[in-house]
Write a structure and sequence with these properties.
Length: 338
């Protein structure tokens, strides 16, 4: 009997331990399921995707303001600083998601073309901030979704009708109002020289076309992880801009204090802006998400008056209304089709 009892106690102890372990595991699973359920309910909140789109527009507009506030540093060098910040964050995302830096086989050439067009567009738009008012350059570059439909018609063989053609014509009219060419406005460009006005508007418009091509290539990246797309853009930006700055010998190191903090802010806005724009496209259709990005133009006008202390021309406001209306109509039409 003593021997029997000796062997019984460990068995009872083991049973108790198993019960305690099962109970502990059940508690952890219950807590995990409750947290997951709360997170799922949070993601289903109405308008969350649009809110993320609004946040992305605010952060990108703030990044544009930072570029305008740093005229002493080459805009290509500012893109390098922003790309380094993005690499520091999204490299960890790639490692965690176990993604290949080269992308998915079959999509690699589109990944490369997307990086090239993205770098060209940001370089052109950043430089346009030095020549024309912030709101004007932001409005012209914001018109990219309008030209996506034209490039999609040419390159992807998507249908293109009178609606798309009408929005393109209206957008071009809006851009002309912002650019104010001399043959229409008699050389009245306010405080800007005619050369800067035309050159800055042309660079912003070319940057807009390059953004449109970038969107086309992104459509081809169906299986490539978003972190790989951002990382490839950052690597190409650092490589190309470093070569150009070395050739033209225009490297300049920012001073400590104000410039350093602004560069950190530029990197932060790039990282958070990319996160919110990705989240908005995951949570919401592309139409409403692109409509929400119109806040970018609104914030550019506010920043221009509040921080840059520049006046706003009535032609710029009218041009911005035309451009934003076209982008909103295209986004709304795409949403209704779905």
């Amino acid at each position: 009997m003593t021997v029997f009892r000796f062997f019984q106690r460990p068995a009872g102890h083991a049973t108790t331990s198993v019960k305690a372990t099962v109970s502990s595991e059940s508690s952890r699973l219950l807590v995990s399921n409750i947290q997951r359920s709360r997170w799922q309910r949070f993601l289903r909140l109405p308008g969350l995707g649009i809110l993320c789109g609004l946040c992305s527009g605010i952060f990108f507009a703030t990044g544009s303001l930072v570029v305008a506030l740093l005229p002493g540093i080459n805009s290509m060098e500012l893109l390098i600083f922003r790309s380094l910040s993005q690499m520091a964050v999204y490299s960890s995302v790639i490692i965690h998601a176990r993604q290949s830096l080269l992308g998915i086989p079959g999509e690699r050439r589109f990944l490369f073309f997307r990086a090239i067009t993205g770098v060209i567009s940001v370089n052109l738009i950043y430089y346009s901030f030095r020549l024309i008012p912030l709101a004007d350059a932001s409005t012209i570059s914001f018109s990219a979704p309008v030209f996506v439909s034209i490039f999609a018609c040419i390159l992807l063989k998507e249908p293109c009708g009178l609606f798309e053609l009408g929005t393109v014509i209206t957008t071009i009219v809006g851009v002309m109002l912002i650019a104010k060419p001399s043959f229409l406005f008699g050389g009245d460009t306010g405080n800007l020289s005619m050369k800067d006005q035309i050159m800055g508007s042309l660079m912003a418009f070319c940057g807009c076309l390059s953004v449109s091509l970038s969107y086309i290539f992104i459509r081809k990246l169906q299986k490539t992880h978003y972190s790989v797309i951002i990382m490839s853009f950052s690597l190409v930006a650092i490589f190309i801009n470093s070569i150009i700055l070395t050739v033209i010998n225009d490297w300049s190191f920012p001073a400590c204090g104000r410039d350093g903090w602004l560069i950190l802010l530029l990197g932060f806005t790039g990282i958070i802006g990319q996160f919110f724009v990705t989240a908005s496209l995951k949570l919401e259709d592309a139409g409403p998400a692109s409509i929400a990005r119109a806040i970018d133009v609104v914030m550019a006008f506010i920043y221009q008056v509040a921080f840059l202390e520049e006046t706003i021309e009535w032609t710029s406001v009218l041009g911005a209304v035309l451009v934003c209306s076209c982008v909103v109509m295209i986004g709304w039409r795409k949403w209704k089709k779905r």
